[in-house]
Amino acid sequence: MVGSVGKKPIWLNRLRLRFKDFFSWAMGKNKNSVPDNPQFYGRRKGHALRPHRQLLMNELLPKVQVSSEGNYVLDASEIWLEIGFGAGEHLAAQAESHPDIGFIGCEPYVNGVATLLSVIEQKKLTNIRIFSDDARLLLTKLKQATISKVFVLFSDPWPKKRHNRRRFITPENLTTLSYIMTDQAELRFATDDMNYVRWALDAFYQHPDFNWQDQRPGDWSNRYADAVPTRYETKAVKQGKKSVYLTFRRRTRT
Ligand SMILES: C[S@@+](CC[C@H](N)C(=O)[O-])C[C@H]1O[C@@H](n2cnc3c(N)ncnc32)[C@H](O)[C@@H]1O
Q: Exposed (0-12), middle (13-18) or buried (19+): which is 215, by Cβ within 10 Å?
């Protein structure tokens, strides 16, 4: 016996997941567009929330939530977007230092959303809106040329070869991002996974709408000057891993 999940053997569950991957690839679903109902492979929930955090989820989240139709109210000169904010430390710090900018953060992990809500409450931040689900569901709803900066920081690297296609940086997601980004909008992508660096550089290089901004050799090893370290970045430092910090710009529309 190899092992079991509930009553089903593990090998059967794995086979089922691989079949699902193969099926969506064979149908061309992920090739040219973000699917309507994309499969999210990450964790949605960790430990049970403490009572106050649960209260924030019940009472504060509905007030700052971006609707599933992509609607939000923000009185701001620009809108910046963070995809996969984790515990939200980077998003909250950016929002605090740029009160004139409106921020949208996407994160399906409930415990991360609850942590950010507690910072929003403590610091009385009024310029953050949250989409508490898979960012891909929101990206297709946002209006053209409305986002001036995008952060994708320490996005899940999915290191196993058979899982690489789960990575957030894909030609389809770049096309969707390019549509909602303003001309010359910046996109930051950081990771400590060198395979993901190669994967991302390849995807951006092949995409007609993005330019890599690095000017000098080694620029990619410099942290973004205005960014607080994220939880995963700090974890990488503790493990002695090097991180790569890439910056791209959306080309001006002709
Ligand atoms: C490795 S963690 C990094 C979190 C944070 N950015 C940091 O640096 O500490 C990646 C995060 O991205 C989130 N994520 C993964 N896929 C996502 C998606 N499609 N939309 C929004 N968030 C996503 C995960 O839930 C997870 O919290």
A: exposed
What does pTM read for this prediction?
A: 0.88
Name the residue at shortest CA distance from atom 1 of ligand 1.
Answer: 156
Angle at alpha carbon of residue 69, lines to 67 and 72, rounded to 5°: 45
Closest residue by Cα to atom 23, ligand 1, is 84
Q: How confident is the model at residue 36 (pLDDT cuts 50, 70, 90)?
A: confident
Over the stretch 206-250, which tens digit does the pLDDT of each residue have? 999 999 998 788 999 999 999 999 999 999 999 999 999 999 999
Residues contacting ligand 1 via CB (< 6 Å): 40, 42, 83-86, 106-109, 112, 134-136, 153-156, 168, 230-233
Atom of ligand 1 nearest to the CA of 112: 27
> Tokens at residue 205, please?
């290089």
- Catalytic one of 156, 209, 214, 219: 156
Assigned token pair, 215: 């000017």
What average pLDDT score do residues 85-99 get? Answer: 98
Taking the centre of ligand 1 as the mean of its atom positions, its distance from the CA of residue 155, in whole angstroms, is 5
Report the CATH fold assignment for 39-250: Rossmann fold (3.40.50)
Q: What DSSP string describes 28-91?
A: THHHHS--SSPPP-S----SPPPHHHHHHHHHTHHHHBPPTTS------SEEEEEES-TT-HHH
Would you state the pLDDT for residue 215?
79
